[in-house]
Amino acid sequence: MPELRLHPDRLFPGDPATRTMARELYEAVAGLPIISPHGHCDPAWFADNVPFPNPAELLIKPDHYVFRMLHSAGVPLEELGLPSSDGTPSEADPRVVWRQFAERYHLFRGTPSRLWLDWVFAEVFGLEQRLTADVADAYYDAIEAALTTPAFRPRALFERFNIEVLATTESPLDPLEHHAAIAKSGWSGRVITAFRPDNVLDPDQPDFRADLARLGEITGEDALSYKGYLRALENRRAFFREAGATSTDHGHPTAATFDLEPDEAERLFARVTRGAGTLTPADAEVFRGHMLMQMARMSLDDGMVMQIHPGVTRNHDAATLRRFGRDKGADVPTATEYVQALKPLLNRYGADPRLTLIVFTLDETSYSRELAPLAGFYPAMKLGPPWWFHDSPEGMRRFREQATETAGFYNTVGFNDDTRAFLSIPARHDVARRMDCGFLARLVVEHRLELDEAHQLARGLAYDFAKAAYKL
Q1: Are residues 254 and 207 located together in one domain of the fold?
Q2: Interatomic CA distance for residues 365 and 306, integer angstroms
Q3: Domain of residue 64, residue span
Q4: At 134, which CATH number?
Q5: Number of independent structural domains in the chain
Q6: Are residues 233 and 331 in the same domain?
Q7: What tens digit of pLDDT does each residue of 185-223 get?
Q8: End of a domain among 128, 152, 176?
Q9: Mean pLDDT for the stretch of residues 78-99
Q10: Nearest Cα to Cα of residue 211 among 193, 224, 226
C-alpha cells in the first residue's frame, strides 16, 4: 500500500539555499498559536462538546471544497449525505459516502484540499497509508473509533490545535445561545462571533422583508421604518459586541458603496420594503452600497472591524439551489471593480483612525491594479488574504507577488482560514506559514530583505497582523 508521508520541506522553494532559509523561518513560527478571526464553524460544537458523529459528517458533509469536486465527477449530492433544502436529512449511509470519497480521492491531486486532508489524516489521526478505495473501510473504522474518545471531542481538538481564538459567523437574528453557553461553561477556549448582516442588508435575499420584521421583534424597534431599521441594526451590533464580536462581515455581490443624503436614503428604503415587484436591480445595488456606508459609520462608534467579501456569483446551479439550498459548492468568482466602487466610502472614512476596513477579492486581476494601490494610500484599508478559491499555495504566492510592491506587508492582515471544516484549520494555517516563509526566504537570498526583518515578518504574517487587525 502507498505510504502517507508529509515531507518536512513541502511547499518550500526548490532552490537549496532558499529552501534552507525558508526552513529556518518556518521553524521559528510553526508553533505559534492560531488566530482564526473569520470562519464558519458551528459554535454548537464547542457549546455542547459532544463527539462528532462519523468521518463523513466531519470531513465531507461540511466541506464544500470536497463535495463540489466529487459532484464534478458525477456523484449526486444526495449520495454524499447533504440534506435537502427543507431540512430533510439524507438517508445516505455514511460509510458508503466515505467509500465514494475514497474511490475518487485521486481527483484531489494537486489541490489544496489534498494538502489539508492528508495533514488531517496523518497528523490528527495518525494514519500511515495513503487513502485509496482499498483502505476506505480501514480509514473509516480508525477515524470513527478515534471520534468516540475524549481526545477527539471539539474542545480537546481546539486545545490540541493551539487555537488562541476562533470566530464564527452569525446573522443579526441569531440569539447567540451557543456563545452564551460557552461563556457560562467555564471552558477557557475563546470562541467569539462575527456580525454577518447580509440577510437584512440585501433586498435580493429571499426572506428580506420577513427578516426585517423579525429584526424589529427582537429589538423592539420599527425595523420597517428607516430610522427604526438603523436603530435596530445598532442594537444588534451592541448585542454581538457583548458576546465578544470584534468584526462585521459583508458578502455583497459587488463592492459598490453609495453616500446618500438622509431623505434620499429614506425614500429608497421605502421602495426597498414596499414588496415584491416594486424593486429594481439598481435600487437593490444602491441600497446595499448605502448600507455599507452605514456599517462603516457604525464602526466608527462601536469599533467593529469591517470586512467586505464581494465578487462571487452564488448558487450558480438553479437545480442545486432548489433541492439543497444555498452554499452547496455551486459558486463562481466574477470580475470585480474596486476603485470607483469604494470611492464614496473611502473618501468619507478612509483616513479615519477609528475604521479598519479589510477588503477581500476573488478577482486576482484587481490586486496589483486596484486593491494594493488603494491599501497603499488609505490608512483605514487593509488587504484580506487570498480567499476561498485562492486559499491555495499558488494563490498565496500570486497574492504576495502582486500586492507587496505597492501595499507592502503591513497593509495586509495575515491569514484567515474562512472554513466550515474544523479539522482543516491547522492544516490551512500551516500551508500559509510555509508559503509566506518561502516568499520571505526568496527576498532574503536575493538581498532584498535582511534576515532579522524576515523573522519579524514571518511572525507578523503568522500571528501578530491578524491579532492586531481584528482587535483580538
Answers
A1: yes
A2: 23
A3: 52-152
A4: 1.10.2020.10
A5: 2
A6: yes
A7: 999 999 999 999 999 999 999 899 999 999 999 999 999
A8: 152
A9: 89
A10: 224
Shared-domain flag, residues 336 and 217? yes
Give me 122's grid cell: 496523518
Say what the pTM is. Answer: 0.96
| Whether residue 121 is found in the same domain as residue 170 | no
Is 336 within 8 Å of 255 (Cβ atoms)?
yes
How far apart are the C-alpha atoms of 37 and 26, rounded to whole Å?
21
Long-range pairs for 439-446 at CB < 8 Å and ≥24 separation? 439/396, 439/397, 439/400, 439/401, 440/22, 440/25, 441/12, 441/13, 441/18, 441/19, 441/21, 441/22, 441/24, 441/25, 442/13, 442/18, 444/21, 445/15, 445/17, 445/18, 445/21
pLDDT digits (tens, 9 = 90+) for 170-182: 999 999 999 999 9
Per-residue pLDDT of 102-150, as tens digits, reads: 999 999 999 999 999 999 999 999 999 999 999 999 999 999 999 999 9
User: What pLDDT, on a 0 to 100 scale, did the predictor assign at position 276?
Assistant: 59
Q: Please give the Cα distance from 34 to 426 (Å, whole number).
A: 7
Domain identity same for 317 and 440: yes
Residues 6+ apart with CB under 8 A from 377: none
Instruction: Using DSSP, state whether 333 is helix, strand or coil.
Output: strand
d(CA 243, CA 153): 23
What angle (nearest 5°) sits at the alpha carbon of residue 446, between those of residues 443 and 450?
Answer: 60
Cα 237 to Cα 181, 198, 240: the distances in Å are: 19, 13, 5
Cα separation, 23 vs 14, whole angstroms:
12
Nearest residue to 12 (alpha-carbon basis) of 458, 463, 467: 458
| Whether residues 42 and 126 fall in one domain | no
Query: Do 122 and 235 reside in the same domain of the chain?
Result: no
The residues, ordered by sequence, that sit 6+ positions from 125 with a Cβ below 8 Å of its Cβ are 142, 143, 146
- The grid coordinates listed for 168 are 464564527
Nearest CA among 108, 78, 114, 111 for reference residue 96: 78
Residues 364 and 465 in one domain: yes
268/415 Cα distance (integer angstroms): 38
Greatest Cα pair distance, the chain, in angstroms, is: 71
User: What distance, in Å, lies between the first and last C-alpha atoms of the chain?
Assistant: 45
pLDDT digits (tens, 9 = 90+) for 403-428: 999 999 999 999 999 999 999 999 99
Number of residues that make up the chain: 472
CATH number at residue 194: 3.20.20.140
